[in-house]
Amino acid sequence: MLRDTYKSRRRRTVMLWALCVLAMLMQLAMFGYVGYKEYRVVEKEDWTIHTMQPSYKLAKSEPETGVYLGGYVLQNPAIEFSMKTFNDRTGRKHGSFFKYVGYGKEFPTKWVEQVKSIGAVPHIAFEPNNGLAEVKDDAYLQKFADEANKAGVPIFMRFASEMNGTWTNYSGDPEQYKETWKMVHRIFGERAPNIIMVWAVLSLPEETIESYYPGDEYVDWVGVNVYSVKYHNDSRLHEADYEDPLDMLNFVYNRFSQEKPIMISEYGATHYTVTDDETDNAFAVEKIKRFYGELPDKYPRIKAVFYFDVNNTTEYNEKRRINDYSITTEKEVLAAYSSAISRSEYLTEVQPVVVQGTEAEQRLTYRGLIYKEDDMLYADMNFFTDVLGLKLEEDGSSQKLVNGNGSVEVDISKKRIWAGYNYFNYIPRYRSIDALPIQQTLEPLGYQVKVEGKDIIVEPQP
């Protein structure tokens, strides 16, 4: 028996060493790869490009400017799960609160009336936790829509969110997901026009996000869930305290914000984690100040944000008993949140659905894929084509960007830039970009480019 135990331990030790060697080889391969001439790494800085979209059509209940304040309190016994108490303690009325509703459960009429009673609108995270096969055009879904319609107020409906990961029972089949989404969208559109369909992902993994997108005509708002934690995977080897929560927004924001209002459907910053068994209020304070303090300026197309006021370490789901995100129990953290949301850009009243289609000028920004080299500012090609609407054309052996003012020949520089977070074992997560110099590309096409600190303002010449 002792010999068997010794052999078993020896095998485990050998396996652990083998995994460590493999991880080191992967790191060496990655660093060698990113250093290859075609994929030179450039320094990531906090640049923001600002431009204007003069004739954008507002989505359902989208405010022309500003950010709806929202929250989640239904797992916080410290405030008796009370929305009113949350408002009182934070010092600001919140315009919306959300609730998880498993597919197959009745429409939460009583809770909706409670939300309405404090002058807010409901946000429902509607989750088919038994898989997409249960979602059908049947009496249940039709009744759910009819009950939602009776509420008489806008309802954010976040259906089947975080499908881009592997932890939900409705992930893994993007085509089935999109077809199911379109069916749900059709039923809600026919029977409950007050419903605002929110297609929401977790900020990671990015690689699968676009494959689940149903298309602009089937989505009202795009949502993203973001959390600030000190460690990933409940492991002290996977430190995450360096992560800027704003970086976690960039992929979704840059991809979708030109067409859709963006909702941060869940955000939380931990002040205690079981991983190191330490209370660190300063960590939560720093992340909340950065996140809420910068959103209105750097991300003007974010139109709603919901704080996740939950102590997960005491929750029923054992796998999530890692972080305490609650703010109403910690004086320093609560003060930081209250101060950050006191800005006038944070809105306490949600617009009615009837504003849909109203034309309004919108300020657009682009983040994360910008760098400076040899005193020249560069941005990824997607900024020029997707945000500014320039066309890339082939002209023999050269490439040109074209607009109504003419064309300019471009010399694309292939780079790699840090995403703002790492893969496991500290392997950096880089994004490949096809970069162009901003001023040298845009000024010949009739744009003015001004640099003020870390802000780059791009405007058509008068």
UniProtKB/TrEMBL annotation:
Q: Which UniProt keywords apply?
A: Glycosidase, Hydrolase, Membrane, Transmembrane, Transmembrane helix
PROSITE patterns assigned: GH26 (PS51764)
Task: Give the transmembrane region(s).
Answer: 14-36
Kinase recorded as keyword: no
What Gene3D superfamilies is this protein classified in? Answer: Glycosidases
Query: Which residues are responsible for catalysis?
Result: E162, E266
**InterPro entries, from UniProt?**
GH, GH26_dom, Glyco_hydro_26
Q: What region holds the GH26 domain?
A: 9-337
Which family would the database say this protein is a member of? Belongs to the glycosyl hydrolase 26 family.
Please identify the protein, giving its name as recorded.
GH26 domain-containing protein
Species, as recorded: Paenibacillus plantiphilus
Q: What is the lineage of its organism?
A: Bacteria, Bacillati, Bacillota, Bacilli, Bacillales
